[in-house]
Design a protein that fits this description.
ureidoglycolate hydrolase activity; mainly beta; Ureidoglycolate_lyase_dom_sf; Ureidoglycolate hydrolase; Jelly Rolls; RmlC_Cupin_sf
């Protein structure tokens, strides 16, 4: 495109430029901010979830002979509400995450319908007993909108587990978790929690916002 004066006489100050001009453009404040806040990508190697490897976070429950209740069964606490057992359909949950969540009032169970492979990011529970809450700001404690205090998980504390076959995970109350995540476009999962877990017991930490980190799962 050629810019010309409305006058019929030619001006010595006429500027000619094309629509593909490469003149530098001034970045607005939001562009500058997004450049400054580009997150660090942290790759985490997934390990198989076993009774021993997952012990700090909960249980891996596999098939066992029918019989009496025992330590290999899921050790549940559903005492603070009405249990909800349902199948949830999830789509497009790729192998990366930047937020992590815990439920303070229930031991949640998750497993894939049909035993398909899936992944879960986790960190140890960090809920603080109310009688131990003192100088929360100095001790780095946060009060959840659900009412309890917790210490935010550190990026170095996050682990990723791979789950496949006829088994499910029982998460201890307060275990931080990100997922289920999977390679397929769509999967179904059975989920055991309380009827109001998603409404009143859902505390989330944003690693991207608070720590400048996004996690990428390596298989």
């Amino acid at each position: 495109m050629i810019a010309v004066s409305s006058s019929s006489s030619f001006s010595p100050h006429l500027r000619v430029f094309s629509s593909s001009s490469t003149r530098p453009k001034k970045m607005d404040s939001s562009s500058v901010e997004s450049t400054k806040s580009a997150p660090k990508i942290v790759s985490l190697k997934a390990v198989d979830a076993t009774a021993s490897s997952f012990a700090d976070f909960g249980q891996v429950v596999s098939a066992s002979p029918d019989g009496e209740f025992g330590p290999r069964d899921a050790q549940l606490d559903l005492s603070r509400g009405i249990p909800r057992f349902y199948i949830m359909n999830l789509r497009d949950r790729k192998l990366r995450f930047s937020t992590i969540t815990h439920h303070a009032s229930v031991t949640q169970c998750l497993g894939s319908v049909g035993g398909g492979e899936w992944y879960l990011g986790v960190a140890k529970p960090s809920i603080v007993d109310p009688i131990n809450v003192e100088n929360e700001d100095e001790n780095g404690l946060v009060k959840s909108s659900c009412g309890h205090y917790y210490k935010p998980p550190h990026p170095d504390e996050v682990r990723v587990f791979r789950v496949a076959g006829p088994k499910f995970l029982k998460l201890n109350a307060g275990t931080w978790h990100a997922g289920p995540l999977f390679k397929l476009t769509e999967m179904d999962f059975y989920n055991l929690e309380l009827s109001n877990t998603n409404a009143v017991d859902h505390t989330t930490h944003n690693f991207r916002k608070e720590d400048g980190v996004v996690f990428l799962i390596e298989d």
